C-alpha cells in the first residue's frame, strides 16, 4: 500500500498490486474487485465500473505472467482483451480521458506481452502516452513511459530514448511512493543502461533494485529476478532485447 499522504493509486489497483507483487493471492484480489464492481454497478457509477473492469483485466494479466507466457491458451488472452476493451468503451462514453489512457495501455499490454506483437501494441502505447501525460495518474503515466521505453529498446534501438522513458517511469513511481512498485522500475532502467553502454550506472541501479525488492516485500518471482540480474551484470553480461515478433 502507499504511505499516508502519498498520491492515490487508480481505483481497483491496490488489491491487484498486492497480489501481483507481495502475496500471490489473486483469489483475494478477484473477490475484492467483484465486490466493488457490484457496488459500482448498483450505484450506476460508470467510471468506477470501468476502472474495476480494467483491474480485473490486470489481475488476469499478472496471473498469466505467473503461469508462464509461453503456455497461454488463446481464450486466456481473449478474456483479458475483452475486459480491457469493455473498460475502454465505457471510459470513452463518459469522456474519462485518464481512464482511456489506462485502458489503451492495457490493450497494448495484451499485444506486446501476451502476443509478442510490437507492431500491434505500438499505436495503443503511443496514444496512451499522449493521453496519460496530459490527464492520467502517476501509475498510468509511469507504466506508459515504461513500455514506450521497452519499445525503443526492442524495436527502434534508440537506447538513449529508451533510457529517458525508463528514467522518467522510475521518477514517477518514486513520486507515487508505493514501495511495491520501485524494484521493477529500477530493474528496467538498470537493464536499459547496460544496453546503452552505461555499465557503471546500470549496475548501481540494479543494486538499488535488489534493495527495493527487499524493502517492498516483493515475492520471490520479482526478488529473484532483480538479484539474478545484478549478479549477471556484475559478471559483465548485457541484456538482449531481441525482437521476437
Could you characterize what this model shows?
By secondary structure, the chain is mostly helical. The protein has a domain of 83 residues: Serine Threonine Protein Phosphatase 5, Tetratricopeptide repeat (Alpha Horseshoe). The protein is 78% helix and 0% strand. It has eleven helices and no strands. The N and C termini lie far apart (36 Å). The model has no long low-confidence stretch (mean pLDDT 96).
Concise summary:
This is Tetratricopeptide (TPR) repeat protein. The chain is mostly helical and 245 residues long.
Oligomer: single chain
Sketch the topology as an H/E string, one letter per element. HHHHHHHHHHH
Strand content: under 5%
Q: What does the radius of gyration come to? A: 17 Å
Largest sheet: none
Second rung of CATH, namely the architecture of the domain at 153-235: Alpha Horseshoe
Distance between the termini: 36 Å
Q: Low-confidence runs (pLDDT<50, min 5 residues)?
A: none
Instruction: Give helix % range.
Output: over 70%
Mean pLDDT: 96
Structural shape: globular
CATH class of the domain at 153-235: Mainly Alpha
Structural class comes to: mainly alpha
Query: Count of DSSP E strands?
Result: 0
CATH fold group of the domain at 153-235: Serine Threonine Protein Phosphatase 5, Tetratricopeptide repeat
The total count of helices amounts to 11
Amino acid at each position: 500500500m502507499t504511505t499516508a499522504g502519498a498520491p492515490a493509486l487508480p481505483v481497483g489497483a491496490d488489491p491487484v498490486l498486492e497480489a501481483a507483487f507481495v502475496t500471490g493471492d489473486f483469489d483475494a484480489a478477484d473477490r475484492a474487485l467483484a465486490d466493488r464492481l457490484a457496488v459500482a454497478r448498483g450505484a450506476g457509477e460508470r467510471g468506477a465500473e470501468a476502472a474495476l473492469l480494467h483491474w480485473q483485466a490486470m489481475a488476469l494479466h499478472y496471473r498469466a505472467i505467473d503461469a508462464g507466457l509461453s503456455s497461454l491458451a488463446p481464450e486466456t488472452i481473449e478474456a483479458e482483451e475483452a475486459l480491457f476493451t469493455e473498460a475502454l468503451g465505457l471510459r470513452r462514453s463518459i469522456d474519462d480521458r485518464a481512464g482511456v489512457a489506462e485502458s489503451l495501455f492495457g490493450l497494448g499490454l495484451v499485444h506486446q506481452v501476451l502476443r509478442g506483437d510490437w507492431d500491434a501494441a505500438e499505436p495503443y502505447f503511443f496514444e496512451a502516452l499522449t493521453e496519460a501525460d496530459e490527464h492520467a495518474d502517476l501509475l498510468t503515466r509511469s507504466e506508459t513511459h515504461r513500455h514506450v521505453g521497452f519499445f525503443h529498446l526492442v524495436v527502434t534501438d534508440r537506447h538513449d530514448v529508451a533510457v529517458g522513458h525508463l528514467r522518467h517511469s522510475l521518477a514517477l513511481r518514486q513520486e507515487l511512493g508505493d514501495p511495491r512498485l520501485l524494484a521493477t522500475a529500477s530493474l528496467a532502467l538498470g537493464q536499459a543502461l547496460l544496453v546503452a553502454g552505461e555499465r557503471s550506472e546500470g549496475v548501481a541501479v540494479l543494486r538499488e533494485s535488489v534493495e527495493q525488492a527487499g524493502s517492498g516485500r516483493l515475492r520471490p518471482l520479482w526478488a529473484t529476478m532483480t538479484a539474478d540480474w545484478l549478479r549477471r551484470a556484475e559478471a559483465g553480461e548485457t541484456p538482449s532485447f531481441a525482437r521476437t515478433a
